[in-house]
Amino acid sequence: MTLVDYIPSDGQRRIAQAITEAEKHTLGEICVHVTPRCRGDVMRRAAQVFNRLGLFRTRHRNAVLVFVAYQDRRLAILGDVGIDGVVQQDFWDGEVELLGQMLRAGRPVDGLCQVITRLGEKLAALFPAERDDVNELSNEVTYDEMDDD
């Protein structure tokens, strides 16, 4: 199964647009990564992807990764040290729960867009946009065809 089998091209565009809109109000960065499988601990796997994609390279260390392993129905939301240190765990848990509900309902694009909007609101409250802000990371959905754990 390829990415377009799980998230069609128009859905990928909606997700990228949701990220663009969310990031207009914050210095934070939001990324979505999709893979079919996740062996082992989902948070450890998300951290590996976070590092492989270089999400730790943002100026304020406030990138957030939304990680979805759709065949295994596993997901994680992982914030870099700049945001994770100021956001309570219950916020992350609530967003994971919301996204999980949407994925189980067969609405991955709607769920991702909704969570992206909520993440953007949280980031905007903690890291409001500045005039000289630049988009440091791609807003496109990244994808692995298989788990390389």
Structure description:
This protein is an alpha/beta fold and 149 residues long. It contains 6 helices and 4 strands; from the N terminus they run ααβαββαααβ. A 4-stranded mixed sheet has the order 3-2-1-4, sandwiched between helices. Helix 3 (42-52) links the parallel strand 1 and strand 2 (63-69). The relative contact order is 0.25.
Give keywords.
6 helices; alpha/beta; single chain; Diaminopimelate Epimerase, Chain A, domain 1; globular; 4 strands; 149 residues
Write the layout of secondary structure elements.
Elements: H1 3-6, H2 9-23, E1 29-35, H3 42-52, E2 63-69, E3 74-79, H4 81-84, H5 89-104, H6 108-126, E4 142-143
Parallel strand pairs: 1-2, 1-4
Antiparallel strand pairs: 2-3
Distance between the termini: 18 Å
- Estimate nothing, just give the exact number of structural domains: 1
Architecture, CATH level 2? Roll
Classified by CATH, the class is Alpha Beta
Strand content: 5-15%
Shape: globular
Query: H/E element string?
Result: HHEHEEHHHE
User: In the CATH scheme, what's the topology name?
Assistant: Diaminopimelate Epimerase, Chain A, domain 1
Can you count the helices? 6
User: What low-confidence regions span 5 or more consecutive residues with pLDDT below 50?
Assistant: none
